[in-house]
Amino acid sequence: MDKLTFGWEEWVALPDLGLPAIKAKVDTGARTSALHAHDIEVFGPASKPKVRFNVHPISGRDDISITCSAPLIDRREVTSSNGESEHRFVIATTIEVNGQSWPIDVTLTNRASMTSRMLLGRQALTEHINISATERRLQPDLNYDVYHTASLRHTAPQRALRIAVLSREDNYSTRRLVEVGEARGHVVEVIDTTRCYMAINQLAPEVHYDGKRLPRYDAVIPRIGASITPYGTAVIRQFETIGTYCVNGSAGITASRDKLHAHQVLAAKKIGMPTTAFAASPKDTSNLMALVGTAPLIVKLLESTQGKGVVLAETKKAAESVIDAFRGLRANFLVQDFVKEAAGEDIRCLVVAGKVVASMKRTGAEGDFRSNLHRGGSAKVVRISKEERDTAVRAARAFGLGIAGVDLLRSESGPKVLEVNSSPGFEGIENATRKDIVGKVYDEIEARVKPQPARRRKGADRGGPSPSGRRATLRPAPQSLYKTSRMMRGKR
Description:
By secondary structure, this protein is α+β, with helices and mostly antiparallel strands.
């Protein structure tokens, strides 16, 4: 490596932290380098702790904030030039100057009152560096324009994320979400949704769990069971209020779980589905059946899951008997046309971020018209048509779901959407297709939490602070954080 000559101030880049341009003051009297950081939070297992923090890379521009994370290597006492001692977290990262890079240790501290966002100590100034203490910026200049351009999003590194899975189930899907996330270097915590409780107020909405306020998460993956839909979606709404990215939003989950509401959404978007009818009065039974057509008919509870509460009535008399029985139980239900040509088969399309990432054909057990795998059905990979793919994508988009299992029937008049599942299982479709579906979910999460470029303030100076004006943040302003926190994984 060729020797570089540093003045007392230089432009540097910290690419591993997603900081492509930052001014640093050179201080040969300090052993370790220091970086301006705030909202510092330790997370992850004790054996491999990580630290997350926010950096204002431009002095005087607190509205521009980059969220960084790195492995935590130490915590040490540092004495400043004025004699004050402070315990600081220490991370290892890479510094880049004039096309050359090398590893350095950095302590994290609040340098808000100082013009330089970073201080370079002796450990960073290797034997390959010459120092000219009377000059400044001897290496090529950078500028802060990168924080105002789209290139920031594309060049941001993949950092360790803190992700919550809202689930009461210790099943394949939950375990895979933890396994794949941790294999990518993220920290994934399973939270029992029913044990969350909320502080609802204007200034500082919070979610609490097991006697403690939950820390700030980069993303939340809801796995809300049908039996707790109202409370589960209330918890998700609270995370949405805080500003946390939720893979599936509360409104989409609520609409998809109510089959009557779901079919109204599909109809409004002109998405094909079996002819459906609903009525509240027992006097309307005959008229209700007439709207759908002749027997056989499907009678379905509005909040049925996994094929439970779905009955095939093969004759008009049988349909009347089932409807009377459901009404006697004060159950809400709807009546649908039975698509005979589907022959007990349906297609599950797994949609992630607006794309069908896998599809399988499900066939019901012998003698059963329902194709649910939970009821003994079988699955195999299937090639779907462009029309079926477009229908599945449109159905997921209609509910605003980042992850959705869209169930289709193949009918003579084209694909019919049977159901849109906001918490689809991964086991059956991963086994059938041999695809890493959960990996696709994390691809989307990682893309969504990358920093967004900020809009430049009117009259802003490229090289430094700009006058006060409208806020333009790269990420939502963070909520109050713990300095350290531990989470217990919730199990049912």
